[in-house]
Amino acid sequence: MSTKETALQHHFENLDQQFEASTLGMWAFLVQEILFFGGLFAGYIVYRNWYPEAFHLGSEHLDVFLGTVNTAVLICSSLTMAMAVHWAQKGDKNKIITFLVLTFILGAVFLGIKAVEYSHKFHAGLLPGDGFIWHGEHGDQVRIFYSFYFVMTGMHALHMIIGAGILIHLIVQAGKDRYDANYFTPVELFGLYWHFVDIIWIFLFPLLYLLGRH
Amino acid sequence: MSTAVFKPRPDQMGDNNEKKTSYLTAGFNIRSWLLTVDHKRIAILYLLSLTFFFFLGGMFAVLIRLELITPAGDLMQAETYNKMFTMHGVVMVFFFLIPSIPAVFGNFLVPLMIGAKDLAFPRINLLSWYLFMFGGMLGFAAIIFGGVDTGWTFYTPYSSTYANSNVILAALGAFFAGFSSILTGLNFIATIHKMRAPGMTWFRMPLFIWAHYATSIIQILGTPVVAITIILVALERLFHIGIFDPKLGGDPILFQHLFWFYSHPAVYIMILPSMGVISEVITCFSKKKIFGYEFIAFSSLGIAVLGFLVWGHHMYTSGQSIYVSLVFSVLTFLVAIPSAIKVFNWTATLYKGSVSYDAPMLYAIGFIGLFTIGGLTGVFLATLGVNVHVHDTYFIVAHFHYIMVGGAIMGYMAALHFWWPKITGRLYPEVWARVASFVIFFGFHLTFFPQFIVGYLGMPRRYHAYPEEFQIWNILSSAGASILGLGYLIPLIYFIWSLKYGERASANPWNAKGLEWEKADSPPTQFNFDKTPIVDQEVYDY
Ligand SMILES: [Cu+2]
């Protein structure tokens, strides 16, 4: 039996309708995500306007080199993801798997580098909380900067981890020949999600890392 | 079987009909319910869980009204009282009102009304119920472990720094219930856009669908903001990250902005679906095409959009700039326009209709009156000067109960009575239903109208003791509450009774228009329709 028949769920008339509904659902989900991060961005804007110096000082202690590397890694992972979607549309199983695996590896590299950064901050006493240490001016306000740093990048990392889990699922499914030129919806929709997570980082990077350098 | 569209359903097909399995008889074991992806069964799961939370929240209301019979705080201490009104609010808002009509009747009816076999994402629909139950259990655990005392609004810095109660559990409960709500909205949007039967154009959709479409937009745009806010409160509590703590340079008012950015529109998550119900019921029991269909449809969207621009009216006394307050005040007045459009159109529908007063219609008429009072007092409250005078008094409490109980729950009751025959295939005893609707209407007014007066006289909300001159109003209110409680128990009894002893319902007991009545059985079959219906008639063609 071809995937065309198995992939169609009982309540849809045809695969086109199923694909359109799924795509719309994913876009609605991403709108929801934008508002979710939007709350954090709104808070960030408020405090950055209140405490520009403290945000400047806090930002200078972030590792721009690692942040830049990570930005490059994520952009590459978006490219590999786009390639995976491209080959999914063409129905080339081996290339789908190759590019999904590459995307997964790049995502893992990003998370690894992020973990290194987190542990540096942790050892420097920059984790917001009662153990927060700051030798300099505006200690409390710098703490707020680091609160935003950890919550925003933490939420972003959480989205990456969930994405990595879904990638494993997609790789397994692709290995079982579930996707072909007629049916590749999950790969395409996951692509949307992955690019969205990338874009969030593209905003986070200058707001957090580059703030102190201009 | 006939394929002619909108021909009265041949109920007399008898034997043939008996052989078809309804969604209720498609499986009997517990697994067939807990793992179902049928939108109708998920609606039933929601109905049962919401009924539990409704009476749980009601129990706290009983304790509040008992305490307030006397001016002295004799039944409970101030701290206990704080927990009572908090848990009443948390349970009623997050675990009953917000899911209520969309989760039960939206789930059941959206596919049926537009001629689809199911919602676009049946498994996500089931997931939303599990998320809701998980959130509900967290909320319930917060109650069992000693309760919460922050008020349902979780205002910082009390909630984030000082409160000694189960804030995190309760807030996380709201968080998960919120995600369930987002998924419901997402499902409706995709379904309404992509799953309509041939011929079901946008302007042939029942107004119930338009109302749910508008509601879904709010669920998707508003809920995530309160979700991240709840996470920040939890982090503040656990790690003292400083964002809402004024001692560390944080801003507790920011919490209020983020909270009300969701929680004002959340009121429209409660009331818009109710308005959708009222549109269906009014036109059916007037046997007349609804007046101003397009106006009602677009006023739902108007309310959804305007609803996002008015949150500052909760913060007139929070130190917000007076100019900002002025803008919020004007924007809040504007909400009255789409709301009034609906009320006028419903009333105009009654004009020269052949009106009958069955139970759903009694609730719908009650809704119009109560919602009008709730809405107009909302305009008073949007006015800066009046608001400062009655801020945090019982006037506010009365106002939002007219909207949430008099509006949202009256709509819920109307829906329950209107679609009960469709959902269960049984008729309830009409006389009892009419009696109960009058008991509820009378009990409601007696409970909440005195609160307008006592609030205007200056009695503040959220205190367990009060000066003696306010006692008479509180006695009236408590007496009303006991009548209202009785009014809610009567339907509970006759609905359960009807499941076994009620007369069997025909496919269309009200002679209503719409696919769910004309093309589906009572109760509907597993996949709703024998074949995909083709719509070639205008909506509400009475
Ligand atoms: Cu409001």
Question: Main beta sheet of chain B, described?
Answer: none
Characterize the largest beta sheet of chain A: strand count, sense, and whether it forms a barrel. Answer: none
Q: Which bin fits the share of residues in helices of chain A?
A: over 70%
Number of strands of chain B: 0
What is the oligomer described by this structure?
heterodimer
Category by helix and strand content of chain A: mainly alpha
Total beta strand runs of chain A: 0
Strand content of chain B: under 5%
Over the alpha carbons, how many angstroms does the gyration radius of chain A reach?
Answer: 20 Å
Mean pLDDT of chain A: 93
CATH fold-level assignment of chain B: Cytochrome C Oxidase, Chain A
Structurally, the number of domains of chain B stands at 1
Shape of chain B: globular
Distinctive features:
heterodimer, A: 214 residues, mainly alpha, Four Helix Bundle (Hemerythrin (Met), subunit A), 7 helices, B: 542 residues, Cytochrome C Oxidase, Chain A, 18 helices, binds copper (II) ion
Topology overview:
The complex is a heterodimer of chains A (214) and B (542).
Chain A: H1 3-7, H2 15-50, H3 52-60, H4 64-90, H5 93-123, H6 139-175, H7 185-208
Helix pairs in contact in A: 2-6, 2-7, 3-6, 4-5, 4-7, 5-6, 6-7
Chain B: H1 15-19, H2 30-34, H3 39-67, H4 78-97, H5 100-114, H6 122-144, H7 158-162, H8 167-194, H9 207-239, H10 252-286, H11 293-306, H12 322-350, H13 359-382, H14 384-390, H15 394-424, H16 430-456, H17 471-501, H18 515-518
